[in-house]
Inverse folding.
């Protein structure tokens, strides 16, 4: 069905309208052009590949009428409890001024079930979550231009201490309730900053450890006031998986700070208190693939408003088991194409969990998957390339950021003798130059890439990292490594060809790794390299969940994960420079340093001086305008501290990454760069993908 919001005219104007009815009919009949990126017809707006409604209608000299997915009623029924039983017309479900997207190649067709793969419910899932993801803003696919999304517009004050967003009038949550600035304030003040909901706010939601001030100036205007300048905050809202809004109408009744009867209401639903209800949905984290209510006590859903909390995303979770997750199109989604068709085109996404890499590869070879990038290692590329015609898919080899395998020794190890050895810079230097990175290039990365030290920044995204810094301790020199190990007293005491700890006790190092964190052959090569210089080393593949749990519990000798960050992330998020240097889901090190910082020295281990200096410098870096001489100078000094101390050891950079796309996937374009840091597929507008018939 096709709808357009109507404005009623006074009776006095009716006669004039009737006299001009032919002209009006002709104007309304004039269809808007089917603008795509491939055929833009000379119609280009303020931002690439998208328009505000009034902007598009003015440029195209037309009036856009809105159409809906013919299956939307049936899809809404699948969403179940909490949804309207019958949907209003599409024009009443959209904002007054929806975001108009120009599809890449064609106006898509509705329907179908998109087939995707992940490792497990919290492992390798960002591929698919980023398809449906929204935030205030977004990076366009040039990875340089920030464009509107949930927010219609924004403005800064002169010193980058106040950022103001204007939202879309009439925008609605997936259950049809109004979305307003109050939902943004609620997210920050009542979710992130309430210790009963989130025990400790993440550093990126603070400035130099201090809170922001978030104010609703009116229902459509929200202002963020910062204690010191942070020009990168706008970038944060474009790349962060954590969305800057939560449904106050849904959580508020159960929030004790909002509703004095919250606990009473919660107890009637079978919970201890209101905060327990919020945790049931929110899980104390903005991470969207934490176990949903479906994976908790499903019996409790019956006494709650809905199975999952309302969302602004393009699809809503309707099923979640240990084997798969399924999401269904949001009938209130705020985007349309240039013909007025409400997005998304794809009805449903099915995400199947398969941990085994060989089984994943087989499913891709057989063409049973529509898109896959995350956790597809370069080692899989040859067989995938050979079977493209058979499986009716295309494998695109693209540049990458953050795909470098990086190792770190546990510098707060529970075993004092190992901790002392690992904290000796000579030991870390020996271990770095004992790595045969050229062998890794030839064996693991199919001859691609170059030896690179860890600098934290993806060196292709900044101008201040030098080749000299990238080359520190990367030249393969096992003789020099042995000499350093001899010097620190890690020598072969019992004559078996393997070295002991300086105190004479046995020394063995274990590398536990998960293939989501990098190719299996990388730790295998390094284990052989380190054993060859006398450090007995073994490698063992474990599940992603096992790796993450052991790493966070300070139980590993060595951690390995694909690491380094695009500059846009470091502009707003200091996490990469503050122990433990990553979230539960990434690369962590210095667990006891983090404990010392969190307890103001009451517990844990005091970090060394260079670590404390980096914590201070990241705040200075983020205060400066992006790319300025002052910021570049600070960044270069920080890189020098990192390569001088080798807290993390880099291996091979400049690695291309495989991107798998089924040929039935319409409006797909290969990534400019494969990276998690812009939130995977988010810049490439998965909402305009469609499944060809």
């Amino acid at each position: 069905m096709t709808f357009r919001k109507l404005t009623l005219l006074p009776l006095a104007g009716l006669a004039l309208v009737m006299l001009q009815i032919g002209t009006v009919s002709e104007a309304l009949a004039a269809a808007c052009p089917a603008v795509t990126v491939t055929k833009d017809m000379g119609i280009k707006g303020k931002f690439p590949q998208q328009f505000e409604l009034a902007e598009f209608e003015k440029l195209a000299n037309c009036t856009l009428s809105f159409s809906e997915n013919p299956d939307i009623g049936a899809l809404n029924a699948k969403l179940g409890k909490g949804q309207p039983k019958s949907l209003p017309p599409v024009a009443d479900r959209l904002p007054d001024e929806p975001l108009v997207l120009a599809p890449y190649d064609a106006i898509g067709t509705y329907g179908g079930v998109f087939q995707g793969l992940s490792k497990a419910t919290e492992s390798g899932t960002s591929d698919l979550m980023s398809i449906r993801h929204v935030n205030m803003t977004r990076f366009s696919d040039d990875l340089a231009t920030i464009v509107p999304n949930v927010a219609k517009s924004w403005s800064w004050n002169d010193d980058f201490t106040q950022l103001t967003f204007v939202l879309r009038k009439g925008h609605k949550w997936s259950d049809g309730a109004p979305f307003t600035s109050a939902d943004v304030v609620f997210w920050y003040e009542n979710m992130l900053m309430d210790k009963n909901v989130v025990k400790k706010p993440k550093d990126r939601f603070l400035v130099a450890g201090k809170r922001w001030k978030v104010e609703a100036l009116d229902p459509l205007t929200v202002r963020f006031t910062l204690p010191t300048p942070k020009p990168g905050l706008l970038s944060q809202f474009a790349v962060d998986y954590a969305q800057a809004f939560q449904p106050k109408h849904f959580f508020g009744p159960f929030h004790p700070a909002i509703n004095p009867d919250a606990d009473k209401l919660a107890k009637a639903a079978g919970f201890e208190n209101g905060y327990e209800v919020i945790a049931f949905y929110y899980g104390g984290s903005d991470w969207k693939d934490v176990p949903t209510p479906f994976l908790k006590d499903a019996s409790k859903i019956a006494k709650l408003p809905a199975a999952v909390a309302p969302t602004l995303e393009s699809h809503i979770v309707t099923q979640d088991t240990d084997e798969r997750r399924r999401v269904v199109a949001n009938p209130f989604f705020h985007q349309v194409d240039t013909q007025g068709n409400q997005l998304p085109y794809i009805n449903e996404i099915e995400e199947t969990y398969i941990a085994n890499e060989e089984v994943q590869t087989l499913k891709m070879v057989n063409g049973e998957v529509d898109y896959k990038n995350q956790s597809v290692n370069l080692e899989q590329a040859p067989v995938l390339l050979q079977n493209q015609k058979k499986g009716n898919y295309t494998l695109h080899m693209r540049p990458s950021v953050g795909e470098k395998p990086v190792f770190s020794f546990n510098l707060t190890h529970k075993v004092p003798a190992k901790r002392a050895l690992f904290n000796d810079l000579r030991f870390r230097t020996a271990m770095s130059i004992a790595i045969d990175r050229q062998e890794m290039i030839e064996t693991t990365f199919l001859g691609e890439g170059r030896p690179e030290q860890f600098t934290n920044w993806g060196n292709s995204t900044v101008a201040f990292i030098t080749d000299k810094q990238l080359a520190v301790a990367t030249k393969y020199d096992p003789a020099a490594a042995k000499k350093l190990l001899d010097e620190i007293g890690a020598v072969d005491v019992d004559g078996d060809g393997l070295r002991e700890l300086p105190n004479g006790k046995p020394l063995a190092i274990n590398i536990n790794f998960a293939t989501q964190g990098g190719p299996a052959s990388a730790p295998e090569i390094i284990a052989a390299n380190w054993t060859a210089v006398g450090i007995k080393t073994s490698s063992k593949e474990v599940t992603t969940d096992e790796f993450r749990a052991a790493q966070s519990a300070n139980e590993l000798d060595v951690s390995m994960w694909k690491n380094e960050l695009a500059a846009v992330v470091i502009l707003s998020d200091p996490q990469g420079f503050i122990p433990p240097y990553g979230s539960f889901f990434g690369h962590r090190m210095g667990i006891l340093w983090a404990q010392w910082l969190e307890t103001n020295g009451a517990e844990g281990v005091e970090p060394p001086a260079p670590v404390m200096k980096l914590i201070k410098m990241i705040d200075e870096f983020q205060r400066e305008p992006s790319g300025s001489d002052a910021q570049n100078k600070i960044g270069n000094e920080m890189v020098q501290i990192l390569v001088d101390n080798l807290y993390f050891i880099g291996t091979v950079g400049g690695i291309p990454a495989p991107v798998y796309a089924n040929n039935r996937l319409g409006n797909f374009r290969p990534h400019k760069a494969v990276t998690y840091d812009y939130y995977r597929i988010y810049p490439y507008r998965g909402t305009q993908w469609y499944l060809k018939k």
Observations:
- The two ends are 21 Å apart (CA to CA).
- The mean pLDDT is 93.
- The chain has 25 helices and 29 strands.
- The longest strand covers residues 113-118.
